[in-house]
Amino acid sequence: MANLGFLKHFSLDIHVCKQRTVLSPEQEQQRLINELSIGTSRAVPAVPGLCPARGGGARTCARGSPAPPRSPSPGNGPVGAAPRKRGRKSKAELLVLKLSRDLPCPAPEPLCVQKALDGSEAAEGLEAAPGRRPKRRAARVALLYLQELAEELTSAYQPPAPNEGAQEPEPERVQKKRRRKKEEETDSDDPAQDTDFVPSKEVLLQAEEEEGSDAALSEASESELEPLRRHSTRTSSAGRSKPQCRGLAPNGFPNSVMAPVEKCSSITCSLREQKYSRWEFPDWIPLVHKWTCLSESEAAPYLPVEEKSPLFTIQREGIEDNGALYRLNRFNSLQPHEERRDVSFFVGGPVWAMEWCPTPEGSAAPQYVCLYCHKSMDETHSVAGLHRGPALLQLWSLGTLQQEGSADKAGLAYAVATDHGCVWDMKFCPSGAWEPPSTSRKHPQMSRLGLLAVAFSDGSVVLYSLPHPNALQSCQRTQVKGRKSCGTLPLVGSIQAGSPSESGQCFSLSWMPSKPHHHLAAGFYDGTVAIWNLLTKSLLQRVCQPDGSLKLYPFQSFLAHDHAVRSIEWCKANSNFLVTAGNDRKIKFWDLRRLYEPINSIKRFLSTEVAWLLPYNGVTVAQDNCYASYGLCGIHYIDAGYLGFKAYFVAPRKGTVWSISGSDWLNTVAAGDITGELVAAVLPDLAINPLNVKRSSDRRFPVYKADLLPCGPTGPENGEQALPKTRLYSEMVAKAYIQFRDTDLRSFKNFSSREPMRRMHTQEVKAELSLDRLQLESLHKVRFSPNLDSQGWLLSGGQAGIVRAHCVAGLASGTDQQLLPQCRARFSSLYGAEPCSPGPPTASPLPAE
């Protein structure tokens, strides 16, 4: 807002004197002396041939004695003028001294008009205001520039919804008086405030076209300013006119909040058509004989220990709660709610990695989610050492998800057993890896669901070519039992490393977002970032081992941080740029063409995860608040350095934010923290300086809040004090249950006065965090669906092992409703078939790696 204040003061300080008639030189000199003598604190010497100044002359003081303070009067200068510094003569006093010494006086250009102006010229060059100095056209240009800047950057004017206590507008007479009073209070002749600025060419041309108007801009009505707003210089990249940002959208949010959502949906669809591919990696097709079906006894070491979930209940806003308590068996789910369509299922342990499987726009295909959970609820892993052991990758089918909700029950499609330790991150290839499940392939090939890269705690990165569940189930009879799979590709962490373990654990992964997606980046414990070319033919990078296996070395690796790389993200708009966040509390932006130093390095706090949305030049960052200043804990947007914007505070959080995810379609980020609250925030247009955004608290809303409550022998109890102070899961689950309080996300009307919003604001101010017990309600992973068909769906999971899916239906925009039929028609024309019909989720035995 500093820039806005500067422009305001500047526009009010540009004045010229009133129009005068042409006088003779003697009369002009006499008038000049009379005017300059008014308001000076020093005695004016007598000048021969000149009359004394009006106002009775100025008072004289003895040398060295200061003049006594004077009260404002007509003879002492204008009321409210800024006090002059002691010992410093003003321009008016210097000019009077020159005249008193009979020195030639230069023409006083700033103080009088050089030529006579008739009525038309005065109306063109000056804007006279009653009782004040008139303004030149530059003042009108400045105010016009300020009006356009405020229109673009702020949404301060939020009119009430119709029929909801709208107030009648003030009379124009009262508005003029208030503007005049405000201008008089801020008016000043201080030269330090007369800083120049250069308006855009469009603004200048627009001002020249409006030169003939006699009305002052400061007194123009809203109807007169409306045509100027339509010609804003900042338009969307699609070339459309600037959307209307006043009033309320149908979902209840202000139009100023929903305008960037509409813009980002169009940009995302356009760029995906350019940067996404239909088919990549044609040689990496799942083969039947490279998948081994395990028996129940063979699969037992890989299964999570807990067979039943903790007790939990769900309270939905606007629906009367029946107080029912649920306990799910391992790999089971609840039936979706008939109205809200939220899905809940139990995976068996704390969730620490999760990712949606990408599908083409308009495919209407079943949605799949791959996730990993620890084997035990009390399992911990040190980041310093390597960990090996059994792990299980679970692939869940959520059915066909659309804005109106899900009609299918979630189910485990199949799981992949591995021996590389726990999983810290997993990423699917963004495009070109999915094919329709009905694709006919000759035996032993199976139709491919996607390509998945997985980061393990033993330091290895493994690529999996996942088949469609139906194809795998139909080929179970032909599998060769007891044979180890060879369908994976292990990646070595650095160029110098002889084995994957030399770089330490791998914590983060990122695929190159634009086709052909041949590059994969990973961050390791020793601060190294490695980048592989997955289709390289180089014998130095693609090395065959004596046992017949294949290892792939990176073509590029560099030391990015002094400690572990916690998160890494590729820029979706330009594949030359990368961002990394490390345990050294630094966030670094890299240009992969010049890796000798980062583009920008910021040391602020301990970052846990970053999300880089498609249309913007920066990242949203989740943080651990152990290093953050008080009042700054939470979620920030940080510019990469090209635009020079300061960090924008998206949402405050009281505890550690473990995960953050962004939706390119909805221009929204969601984050889960240690307190069990899943909060989402609609971002402003971050291509413009976000510091001028008003009321950012109205842009965020809770999706749900998980609370841990005591449960006695007779049923649920109230009070945080009754919870056991233990960090053991077995003791905690016996005396407590989880309460999920869901928000009605179908509409945001009157949202500021609704109970979830009031609760969220109270938690942000007065929430207390109990670290002396197990945080069973904590959320560890949050993921927005990247697919257009399920764009509004949000998945979250945490310490309790309960994964939930919610549909943010209220953020659906008109642009999305137009894009979906077009994309479905395009999909049908490309694949020569109707959009995929949903199939029921099927469970199959666990295939080994």
UniProtKB/TrEMBL annotation:
It is found in: Nucleus. SUPFAM superfamilies: WD40 repeat-like. PROSITE patterns: WD_REPEATS_1, WD_REPEATS_2, WD_REPEATS_REGION. GO terms for biological process: transcription by RNA polymerase III. GO terms for cellular component: nucleus; transcription factor TFIIIC complex. Keywords: Nucleus, Phosphoprotein, Repeat, Transcription, WD repeat. WD repeats lie at residues 558-593. InterPro entries: GTF3C_component (IPR052416), WD40/YVTN_repeat-like_dom_sf (IPR015943), WD40_repeat_CS (IPR019775), WD40_repeat_dom_sf (IPR036322), WD40_rpt (IPR001680). Residues 57-88, 156-249 are annotated as: Disordered. It holds the Pfam family WD40. Required for RNA polymerase III-mediated transcription. Component of TFIIIC that initiates transcription complex assembly on tRNA and is required for transcription of 5S rRNA and other stable nuclear and cytoplasmic RNAs. May play a direct role in stabilizing interactions of TFIIIC2 with TFIIIC1. Part of the TFIIIC subcomplex TFIIIC2, consisting of six subunits, GTF3C1, GTF3C2, GTF3C3, GTF3C4, GTF3C5 and GTF3C6. This is General transcription factor 3C polypeptide 2.
